[in-house]
Specification:
Blueprint (H helix, E strand, L loop, with lengths): L1 H15 L8 E5 L8 E5 L4 E9 L6 E9 L9 E4 L2 E4 L1 E2 L5 H5 L4 H6 L5 H7 L2 H5 L2 H16 L1 H6 L5 H23 L19
Antiparallel strand pairs: 1-2, 2-3, 3-4, 4-7, 5-6
Length: about 200
């Protein structure tokens, strides 16, 4: 069954994304034995991981897809890795802060608009955004992001642009400080477990 899900995933993303235009090529396909199959595409700038989540439980089937971006050193099968003697996240969602950073928002503005970058709001309210669902909705949303930002998105993750990455890390650190301050004002602030890796600990 997972082999079928792998093929469905590949067919969907290769239908939605013009990988040839951006010089992305399929570099890794997860083992059929893994519960949530994924496929990775690499370019000279970065890596992109498409992960299929779902369940065939009788009466309650569901399916969704998550898309993560990584620098070229990102591990295929791990979300965390050791980089410069530090534990850090090597696969990254762009929905929370990356696009707001590229758009030039301040950390304060980004925290306020968390999960709602302008381009994704526009897609959500578009005709396509209202007519497709599930994994295809996620794929088409990111396709719009690729068309809008192009290499500006990929450059953020480019190992050849360390200054940009350090600016992003500083941006995330400030955003995390603001989030922590906001959490302290809640009646029931979230508890960070031992070994918690902060959002700014990225590589």
């Amino acid at each position: 069954m997972n082999r079928e899900k792998q093929y469905e995933l590949i067919n969907l993303v290769e239908k939605c994304f013009d990988f040839q235009r951006w010089d992305f090529r399929r570099s890794y396909l997860s083992s059929p034995a893994i519960h949530f199959p994924f496929v990775i595409y690499d370019s000279e700038w970065c890596r992109v991981k498409f992960v299929h989540y779902g369940s065939d439980y009788p009466g309650q089937p569901w399916t969704e897809m998550h898309i993560y971006y990584g620098r070229l050193h990102a591990e295929n099968d791990e979300s965390l890795m050791i980089w410069n003697d530090e534990i850090c996240w090597c696969w990254h969602s762009i929905e929370e802060y990356a696009l707001n950073f590229i758009d030039g928002l301040s950390p304060e503005e980004a925290v306020e608009k968390k999960h709602a970058p302008r381009i994704m709001d526009e897609f959500r309210n578009s005709e396509v955004g209202k007519s497709v669902h599930g994994p295809e909705w996620v794929a088409r949303r990111h396709m719009v992001v690729w068309k809008h930002y192009g290499r500006r998105l990929f450059k953020l993750f480019d190992l050849r642009c360390p200054d940009v990455w350090e600016q992003y890390r500083s941006f995330l650190r400030k955003a995390a400080q603001i989030e922590d301050e906001n959490d302290k004002k809640r009646d029931f602030p979230p508890i960070k477990l031992a070994g918690h890796v902060e959002i700014y600990e990225v590589c």
